[in-house]
Amino acid sequence: MVNMQLVFLGTSSATPTIERGLSSLALMRGSELLLFDAGEGMQRNFIKAGLGMNRKMKIFISHMHADHCVGLLGLLQTMALQGREKSVDIYGEPRVKEFLEENMRIINFGLTFEVVVHTVKKQGVVVKEDEYQVTCCKASHSIPSLAYCLEEFDRPGAFDIKEAKRLRIPEGQLYSKLQHGHDITYKGKKIISSQVVGSPRKGRKIGISGDTRPTDNLAKFFRGCDVLVFESTYSQDKQQKAIENWHSTATEAATIAKKAGARRLFLTHFSARYDETSMLVKEAGAVHPNVEAAEDLKIAEVSYT
Which of the following is catalytic: 37, 67, 211, 296? Predict the structure, then answer.
């Protein structure tokens, strides 16, 4: 089992407020950190959250509006000043690479680590690891924008140690083979993996919308999410403004979550006009039964179902 938690580093849209920084979300999976967007000044909350500047890290940028990407520069500089040595992988549309290369040419960063920029040119798998993959889908915004999902692969079923001992299988390599679905032969007797290993256990799925209008494609993309983090810039009475500015209301976010069958919904990316978010949660809660408002430095544990 791998621990997973979401740490909200910035939950405001367009401009920061006294209580909210600009868009950034950290997903901690075991010892690895996956960062989604990096609004200006987000490294302050990164430090407050105690996330650590030298851990394995991937950064995913949804789109090239300043409140989602300018903070990359400060974060990279801060990590260098704290002596980071591990490389950082950054994923995003082609202009992310252009943005970083141009600024690194002009500004003396003095980086102490390698920055590897991966250009995302199409929907689908962005990165694939042994235990999970991150995929992307086109969002509907005023400029090219991506939504992301982290989806863990199924885990092996529970291992029945009592049955294994009854079959007199020695611990060690044979246990490992059986746990990973391989049949074995021991002392001339064939033992099927399913004799001692239960059905595969479903991994977790986390969806992050970026900035977007609600679309049927996103509902399909987020289908079955354990947690969906969706932008909720406006209340429903500002729907026309949401349409004009290519954003979503709380009700629209909840409708997508309901269509997708998402287990939990976190609203984020709030307009600075809202000092508090209870009205947005109430509107979304009329559509989806499990809604919370994100807050800067809020931590949400993501458990297995």
Answer: 67
| 247 — pLDDT class (breaks 50, 70, 90) | very high
The pLDDT score that the predictor gives to residue 300 is: 98
Whether residue 211 lies in the annotated active site: no
Burial of 59 (0-12, 13-18, 19+ CB in 10 A): buried
Please list, residue by residue across 25-47, b when 16 or more beta carbons sit within 10 angstroms of its beta carbon and e when fewer do: bbbbbeeebbbbbbbbbbbebbe
pLDDT at 164 over 90: no
Q: Is 299 helix (H, G, I), strand (E, B) or coil?
A: strand
Over residues 205-223, the pLDDT tens digits come to: 999 999 999 999 999 999 9
Pair 248, 271: CB distance under 8 Å: no
Question: What integer pLDDT is reported at residue 93 of this predicted model?
Answer: 95
- In this structure, what DSSP letter does residue 75 have? H
Quick one: pLDDT at residue 243?
Answer: 98
Residue 241 has pLDDT above 90, yes or no: yes
Return the domain boundaries, the chain.
4-155+201-301, 161-195
Residue with tokens 């003396």: 108
d(CA 204, CA 207): 10
Domain covering 4-155+201-301 in this structure, CATH number: 3.60.15.10
- How far, CA to CA in Å, does 53 sit from each of 115, 241, 300? 14, 39, 21
pLDDT attached to residue 166? 87
How would you classify the pairing of strands 264-268 and 227-231? parallel
Task: Note if the pTM is more than 0.70.
Answer: yes
